[in-house]
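#struct-help
A.M.: can someone run this one for me? Single chain, 349 residues.
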Amino acid sequence: MLQSVVNTFNSTHSTIHVDYSVINGDYSTAMTARFAAHNPPDVFYVDSSVAPSWIKQGVLQPLNTYIKKSKYDTTKFYPGLLSAFKVGKTIYGFPKDWSPLATEINSAMFAKAGISSPPRTWAQLTADAKKLASSGAVPGGKPICLPPDWARMLAFVFQNKGSLASVQSPAVTAAVNYYVGLLKQGLAATPTQLGVGWPGEALGKEKAAIIFEGNWLLPYMKSTFPTVHYGVAPMVKGKVNGNLGFTVSYSLAKDSKNKQAAWTLLSWLTGKKGMTLWMSKGLALPSRSDVKAIGGRKPFLAAGPFAHGWGFPNFSTTITVMNNDLQAVINGSMTTAQMLADVSKSLKG
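D.P.: on it. Structure tokens below:
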């Protein structure tokens, strides 16, 4: 699909020819080898989770000079997504697309429990889960499926005005305790406890009535569980709206031999024209506020103004610590305070 977008670029830019190449296998490992050999692609994907590391290694070209010279308007990007590829005021990439989390519900189970609409707040989430449990609307399952994964729980942290910068704060502690509390009260279960691989499968197999997943759920449900009726609503709200932005940038290699041409490509792909063309393929959400998504994505797009890019310092080590410790907190072999102390230490490297 991206090849057809590249073909359009090539046909409209006679002085530049782009060769599109797919990197198979582990992308991060392959790119690290290319960086070390000083032979990376001119323009490439950077996942928000690895952006801090690659910026620190000095392998990404700062874009501010190009932005200023070509008067490129960066204000159309959702700020939380763009900030995933920034250090201070220096920009190292533009988000090409993204997905946040939303609230997905099993419509029939909600009807059976006498609930007329998806939960919009933490209080409603708890109340709906109790109704689903007491009405027996989820036979052989649980009202909610919650994975032991900070890629879901961190949204709740942001909703409680918490942050990773102060990860041992009362706000973060309370958010963790709410998330884990749903599991400990029997109102939620992990995918493993439900005998499934991930929450989408729990929704599809009708093992859970409520999950929190991204835009990727829609094609999965359509192809795998076409007869299961479900609804999509904006992510629940705590004290404030908070969500994660799973995003990838197009960035320019510091070692590129074709920087001006690469900038022309990068700025076109992430500009209104290129992104509109990419959105027409129906795979993801626009990271620009002036580009429309295809139908059925409105509850996801609602998160644009307050989504936080998914990524943090020392990512690969820290996410392992986070999720191992979260599983231990759920199991009762570790306290929330102990987990947050571990996370704080790992974030500092």
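A.M.: thanks! The mean pLDDT is 96.
D.P.: also worth noting: The longest helix spans residues 315-331.
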